[in-house]
Design brief:
Length: about 300
């Protein structure tokens, strides 16, 4: 394979970025402190030597002219100290889906039964994320915790977009930069899995133009999976909340993930989340004041 297809160019740029971040000493190279290095991180020939391949072969990979074989890919993962998410990213780039042509897919929707389940989780913030981290569904407590998603136009309900463009959401996270960087890394992973997604390309283009931090972090090419974690929120009504979040993939559509937030029982965050839940509870079903049976008045 000698063409310069987009997925191979991205693979080469990704490898170049990763080797530029790697300290030679961490891979056992002896560096002559008296001679300044012309490049940041590892040189191409150093990566090639450590991977037991020729410099020319590695150069063609990095230039986007060649897809590495499985043994060579495994060697590069080892040499560049890539984690599981980074390895998966490379495999997506050279996998069978890497050459897909653009196809505009309809907006994802959740089944009514899933929304019913969300609504029944009255003391747990819950939402469903789809491709590109689009926000597909949520319950009352999630809206009270994060933002009023119903006030956001459907086409703009995207988690990463809100993180970068909504001042209230930006202020909500104590470590906004870590949250934002992770969001960008998850988007980058999605880009490898869905390389021909025009909506993802439009989102990345929009945020690259409007936010210099997004533009820089996208160029850094860091990737991540969304699985679980802990976030500290500065809620404007109940104060600081330390919440754990976990994701669950929906078997009916693996591109949809249920995200649940919870607090340690007995903690201050748990009590504050309980208070927020009581404030966001659905209003009682209207009944007639003088009806002893509590049945709804016609």
């Amino acid at each position: 394979m000698t063409d310069r297809a987009p997925h191979l160019r991205e693979l080469g740029e990704f490898l170049k970025t990763r080797r530029g971040e790697l300290d030679p000493a961490t891979v056992g190279l002896v560096v002559d402190s008296g001679r300044p290095r012309r490049v940041r991180g590892l040189r191409r020939e150093e990566v090639a030597d450590l991977a037991a391949i020729s410099t020319d072969y590695y150069t063609r990979i990095e230039q986007g002219r060649l897809a590495p074989s499985e043994p060579v890919l495994a060697a590069l993962v080892r040499v560049l100290r890539l984690d599981r998410a980074e390895r998966d990213y490379l495999e997506n780039l050279i996998g069978p889906g890497a050459r897909r042509t653009p196809v505009r897919r309809g907006r994802q929707r959740v089944r009514p039964q899933i929304q019913r389940l969300l609504d029944q989780l009255t003391d747990t913030p819950a939402l469903v994320l789809g491709r590109r981290l689009d926000i597909l569904a949520w319950n009352r407590l999630a809206a009270a915790l994060l933002t009023d998603f119903s006030a956001v136009p459907a086409r703009q309900r995207n988690y990463v977009r809100l993180i970068f463009t909504d001042p209230a959401v930006r202020e909500l996270y104590q470590d906004w930069e870590a949250v934002a960087r992770t969001g960008v890394a998850i988007l980058r992973m999605d880009a490898a899995a869905n390389p021909a997604d025009p909506d993802l390309a439009a989102l990345v283009g929009e945020l690259s133009v409007t936010d210099p931090q997004f533009r820089q972090w996208w160029a850094d090419r860091h990737v991540a999976h969304q699985e679980f974690g802990t976030k500290v929120l500065r809620h404007p009504e109940v104060g600081e909340l330390t919440l754990d979040w976990d994701t669950f993939t929906y078997a009916g559509d693996p591109a949809q993930q249920l995200v649940l937030w919870s607090a340690e029982p007995g903690s201050a965050s748990h009590e504050r989340l309980r208070i927020l839940a009581s404030w966001s509870a659905a209003p009682p079903h209207p009944v007639a004041v003088d009806d002893p049976l509590g049945t709804e008045r016609e």
